[in-house]
Specification:
Number of strands: 0
Largest sheet: none
Low-confidence stretches: 8-14
Number of helices: 11
Distance between the termini: 32 Å
Strand content: under 5%
Radius of gyration: 18 Å
Structural class: mainly alpha
Shape: globular
């Protein structure tokens, strides 16, 4: 999932084709995380907490290199109350990994990814209204209605994703926990964003999250990992995480605010299509309608967000 909320590296309204392509490619790579983890579960006896730790751990060197090359020692410029906020960024990122990979193991890629990615922005809007005093605008209310209806249809109707109905509900619960963790990560990142470069928040956040998961990952470390499992872990940590963020930030430098909606919409669509083609995870007719409502909710939120930013910049 995209763990880079509300990042705007360029306030220009112009959107370059190259920038859009880079962001879309990054989001498509994020959409393969769940796919790779499901292959991993099929070939290796590995716990979700270990997968989550390895994803963060392997990505950290690339992200720190990116941050240090861009802003140097300011990467580590946290002090006072900011230390508590960055600690919570690490905690929420760690919980997001744990919950998401558990959801994939429980219910498959399609439902886990759609519920996680599509409900997270809705939870952000609710929490921002409750704790930051942000008004629930008409687009936000409409998106919430679509999101609740879409989630209910996605998990509450018969589908052919290869697991029982109980597993679908359990997996959806884990995915909602993942979405809540991401939403809290977003809010803590907003607290730090005014004084820190986005590269810093991602690099330090991933490092802190890896440290949080380390003791649990050691406790659940598999006795042996086959070569295929090693390659899958390396892929998850380096390609759709570390490398994808390099593409994402490069694209954000060349494109305007529209890229946020592209990233949001591309990731769940790629994950769902791959889950259908590779694992034959079929959502059913009403499930597809629910998925469409969830994606529509994200589109409504993205459109409302662009309008607010346009008004603020005039």
């Amino acid at each position: 999932m995209n763990e880079a909320p509300n990042i705007r590296l360029d306030r220009s309204p112009a959107v370059s084709a190259r920038g859009l392509l880079l962001v879309a490619l990054a989001a498509s790579l994020w959409g393969t995380v769940g796919i790779a983890s499901k292959f991993l579960y099929a070939t290796t006896d590995v716990a979700p907490v270990f997968v989550g730790f390895m994803r963060l751990f392997l990505a950290v060197p690339l992200l720190f290199a990116l941050s240090l090359a861009t802003i140097g020692r300011r990467t580590f410029a946290f002090a006072g109350r900011e230390l508590g906020a960055i600690l919570m960024v690490g905690v929420t990122l760690a919980l997001y990994q744990l919950f998401y990979f558990t959801a994939v193991a429980t219910t498959g890629v399609a439902i886990a990814t759609l519920v996680t990615i599509c409900t997270a922005p809705l939870i952000v809007a609710l929490l921002a209204g409750a704790f930051l005093g942000e008004r629930l605008s008409a687009p936000v209310v409409a998106a919430l209605i679509l999101g609740v209806a879409g989630t209910a249809m996605l998990v509450g109707v018969p589908s052919d994703v290869g697991v029982s109905r109980a597993a679908v509900f359990a997996g959806a619960a884990w995915a909602l926990g993942s979405a809540l963790s991401y939403a809290l990560f977003t809010l803590f990142s907003r607290v730090l964003a005014p004084g820190h470069h986005p590269f810093t928040l991602i690099a330090i956040g991933f490092g802190a999250g890896a440290l949080m998961l380390l003791p649990f990952a050691v406790a659940r470390m598999p006795a042996a990992i086959p070569l295929e499992g090693i390659w899958l872990l390396l892929y998850i940590g380096l390609v759709p995480t570390g490398f994808a963020y390099i593409l994402f930030f490069a694209g954000m430098k060349r494109a305007g605010a529209t890229v946020a909606s592209i990233a949001a919409l591309t990731e769940p669509l790629v994950a769902t299509l791959l889950a259908w083609s590779l694992f034959e995870e079929r959502l059913g007719a009403l499930g597809l309608v629910g998925a469409a409502l969830l994606v529509g909710a994200m589109a409504v939120l993205a459109k409302g967000s662009r309008r607010r930013r346009a008004g603020a910049d005039t």
